[in-house]
Amino acid sequence: MATTLNLTGPIVGNDSSWIYDYLGMECISPKNVMKSIGDESEQLTVNLSSGGGEVTAASEIYTALRQANTTVVINITGMAASAASIIAMAGDTVNISPTAQMMIHQASLRDVTGNKDDLDHLSDILDKTDQSIVQAYVDRTGLPVDKIVKMMADETFLTAQEAVEYGFANNIMFAGTNAKSKVTNSLETGVLSDDVINKIGTLISVKEQVKNEKAHDVPDNTNLTESRQAQRSAKAAILLEELN
Q: How far, in Å, CA of 52 to CA of 80, rounded?
């Protein structure tokens, strides 16, 4: 029996995946992937398209796929960038759509603050993170470490043909056919900031408080409608602020 797992959206940790579920947004998290890995599957096919996200979460997913007691086939359907390219390296076989791309680069941090000693320490952490990522690429491609390090430093984008030539992928999908495909020019990871997550968490708390108050009072339909509209407007404002 074969199992198919579709992984799209930003790669996030288990502790923040709930906000994406609440907003109805796609995301990739370790717990969701682990739930889908069955011991009795003859083959696990992973359709992957992501602009990246959290390196630690990607590492957990990479490890889970490598440990799976089944053959893992990864199809890169759109983009496997940044942390998503780490997940792609876990496949026993890696296929890439002719219109898809891969991108590898050095690890980075968001919302960085601190003094020079703090930043020196963070620089060391990023260096160690890069070394860990390099190993996954070397194991898959057989390329020299120095070559991979240079490609990451240059933030290298790879076409399907280049991904196969360098050894990041085994095959180009639909080779020799006339299949039609769509191409997108967006590389947004879609990862929500901690500030946005906290704001929406507060909004949810207010919503629960209103729900509890409604249990003790006879609702006014006009006020309830206005309240729902206000909550929807607040959600939209928070997301627009994040996008801007």
A: 7
Tell the residue number behind the tokens 């359709």, with chain if given: 47
CA distance 227 to 221: 10
pLDDT of residue 235 exceeding 60, the answer is yes
Q: How far is CA 195 from CA 26, 48, 192, in A?
A: 19, 28, 8
Q: Give pLDDT tens digits for 200-221.
A: 877 787 777 767 666 665 555 5
At 244 the pLDDT is 57
What CA–CA distance (Å, rounded) separates 69 from 66? 8
Specify which residues 104 forms β-bridges with: 156
Q: Which residue has the tokens 């898809």?
A: 100
Residue 13 has φ and ψ, to the nearest 5°, of -75, 160
* Reduced DSSP (H G I as helix, E B as strand, rest coil) percent helix, strand, coil of the chain, to 5: 50, 20, 35
How does DSSP classify residue 218?
P
Question: Residues 180-197: pLDDT tens digits?
Answer: 444 444 455 667 777 778
Model pLDDT for residues 44-61, shown as the tens digit of each residue: 999 999 999 999 999 999
Q: Say which amino acid occupies 35.
A: K
CA dihedral over 77, 143, 87, 197, signed as positive or negative: negative
43 CB-near residues (< 8 Å, 6+ apart): 2, 3, 70, 71, 72, 73
Structure tokens at 71: 């053959």
